[in-house]
Amino acid sequence: MLKRMLVDAVLVNLCLALALFMRYVVASWSQAGGLFVDQHLMRSFLGIYVKSASLLTLVALVIFYVSGFYTRGRIYISRYKTFVIFQAVTLTYLAFGSLVFLAGATIGLPRSVLPVAWLMTLIGIGGVRLAFTLVEREVLLDLGAVGAFDVRDPRSVLVVGGAGYIGSVLVRKLLDRGSRVRVLDRLLYGEGSLADLYNRHDFELVQGDFRNVEAVVRAVQGMGSIVHLGAVVGDPACALDEEFTFEVNLAATRVIAEVGKGYGIRRFLFASSCSVYGASDEIMDERSEVAPVSLYARTKIESERVLLSIMSDGFSPVLLRLATVCGMSHRPRFDLVVNLLAAQAAFDEKINIFGGDQWRPFVHVDDVANAIIGCLEAPLEVVRGQVFNVGHDAGNYRLAQIAEIIKGVVPDVVVSVHQNVEDERNYRVSFEKIARTLGFQANKTVEDAVLEIVDAVGTGRVVNYRRPEYSNVKWLSENGETAITMVPNIYSVVMRMSEGMSATG
Ligand SMILES: NC(=O)c1ccc[n+]([C@@H]2O[C@H](COP(=O)([O-])OP(=O)(O)OC[C@H]3O[C@@H](n4cnc5c(N)ncnc54)[C@H](O)[C@@H]3O)[C@@H](O)[C@H]2O)c1
Predict the structure, then answer these.
(1) Contact criterion met (CB below 8 Å) for 41 and 24
(2) Domain of 111?
(3) Number of domains in the chain
(4) In a shared domain, residues 229 and 111
(5) How far is the CA of 128 from the centre of ligand 1 (A)?
(6) pTM across the whole model
(7) Whose CA is nearest to atom 43 of ligand 1?
(8) Which of 376, 410, 464, 491 has its CA 20 to 30 A from that of 338?
(9) Pocket test for ligand 1, best of 171, 188, 213 (most atoms within 8 A of CB)
(10) Do 182 and 135 sit in the same domain of this protein?
(11) What confidence score (pLDDT) does residue 111 get?
């Protein structure tokens, strides 16, 4: 930010100096009928410059700052950016002109200098930014970050299902890293998870159903890459309505990928699941035989196959088999085993374990978001067409061990073990490939996740973990009529820029 402010300060000063010099040439010409060095006239112009330059610099930097010139990672659509620059530079000269007028003879700046300096500053500030954007775009193109079809904003990311448990964490991390982010989501579980982002210039929400191709086309246009997280998530939720699950989890994945491919999107990240491994005593890696034991897992493995089948020189899917996720998010979920047990411990001081010997891999939601970013930033040839298990080897636990971790955080909790096992999944997973290929390392543990949940309960951020919006199956059962059967063929775009909110339907 400081560097950008310094460049702008130098530019503004240069423009003022040039405008004054031109005025000096005109004055010298009209006095002597030619250009000659009049020491007195020159000293007077130098005096004016010294008195006015610091005032103009101060006014300009304040207005540029307020106009968002130095906000980290802010990337505007070019049309909008031109307008912001025009507005900020004009405001600067209006404010500066008023101050000069009030100061009167103390500064003595000829009024005719103002429009010339304004025009030069406009060209200077706009030109430097345009040159920077063009160079940056060329560099990104060389890196293979985008297709040649539409290079409007190669660093931009479309997060499909971005309002969900993982998406709402990922979106914020991407914004922090300077990406422009668009989310396509139907907001099945409410809009609370992203509401505080609506006023950002670098964020856009396309609220729509991704089974609707029109909404997908609208969302994909102009994007650099896609992360597809949207799905009916979890075995019980998927079992509610098999046709709906098939449409959302499999058919729509193909639609989104085909539209992306058509629009020249090169990098397509897909959230699959380690539950494709089903039940096994082996340690499963990416080459292991898959054995899905639920509809949810079957839709994931079928989607992986579809995506690999349409891979081409210009379209590179990356398949991420996520371990079971845990930890707090902007859309908390308490239908995930660690989160549910931690919330039960914090609220009820008792937890129920069914079985206990089953192995499951766990990963913190923050680490999942980091792994996704790692795949977005890795050279394309390293990740293209690859399957990665996402998690870390130390995250493989038996469910009984999870109960022990929770007891360590909430010592008074009573643990009841039941013999009937409702969830057949039992697998240990190797995460060696993602660590070796992308250098991915998890920063958080299951204990961190438990502490976060217990803290959220203690501080009142979660008032009742049983509420339906925290559980996909509960919410979809209660709102099935609208959530499942309706495929809206309209969509709305919420794009809030500084001049206000625009919505189209
Ligand atoms: N959470 C986990 O433990 C876990 C584990 C393995 C894999 N995954 C995968 O990661 C992805 C994200 O999971 P999550 O936990 O964030 O789930 P989530 O249920 O919190 O988020 C899914 C999002 O998709 C949106 N969505 C669903 N159907 C839609 C439709 N037809 N049109 C538009 N939007 C729609 C929902 O509104 C929601 O915001 C999923 O693909 C899931 O299968 C999650």
Answers:
(1) yes
(2) 2-142
(3) 2
(4) no
(5) 42
(6) 0.71
(7) 233
(8) 376
(9) 188
(10) no
(11) 87
